[in-house]
Design a protein that fits this description.
It is a single chain. This protein is mainly beta. The chain has a single domain, classed as Cathepsin D, subunit A, domain 1. The protein is 4% helix and 50% strand. The chain is built from one helix and 13 strands; from the N terminus they run E-E-E-E-E-E-E-E-E-E-H-E-E-E. The protein has a four-stranded mixed β-sheet. Strands 4-9-8-5 form a four-stranded mixed β-sheet, with no helix packed on it. The protein is globular and about 40 Å long. Pfam families: Pol_BBD (PF22936). InterPro entries: PolX-like_BBD (IPR054722).
């Protein structure tokens, strides 16, 4: 996973770190986002075991609201070819970007380290899950 940018906004006071898989198009990019409360994707073809009984509402920073069409897990292949499963990911067909919620990861006992120009995400067993350089 490599970082594609850092976005800061003073309006909502959040920082978004972004990363991407080893694919080359934007639809394959994953953004580590401290401002979103759930992992989300619009890529139905990536979802494993979609549960359409899960009902929720997503409110964006511009106050627009959408209803996800379910919850699932997704397999992410890291740059080093190791795979990671992310669970409780909302399927939002209109999403153009794929978001990983840092808050949701923290709730699941994941930890983050920001050091030496990288962000590292570790699972509850302290195994490295994701690593992205900062610029």
């Amino acid at each position: 996973m490599r970082q594609t940018g850092v976005r800061e906004t003073t309006k909502s006071e959040y920082v978004s770190l972004s990363g991407e898989t080893n694919h080359t198009n934007d639809e394959a990019s994953w953004y580590l986002d401290i401002g979103c409360s759930n992992h989300m994707t619009g890529r139905r073809d990536w979802l494993l075991d979609l549960d359409t009984s899960i009902k929720s509402i997503v409110r964006f920073a511009d106050d627009s609201i959408i209803k996800p069409e379910g919850s699932s897990k997704v397999l992410i292949t890291r740059k080093d070819e190791k795979v990671v499963y992310m669970h409780n990911l909302l399927y939002v067909p209109m999403m153009k970007n794929n978001l990983l919620s840092l808050g949701q990861l923290l709730e699941k006992r994941y930890t983050m380290n920001l050091q030496q120009r990288h962000v590292e995400v570790f699972n509850e067993k302290q195994r490295l899950v994701l690593k992205a350089p900062l610029t």
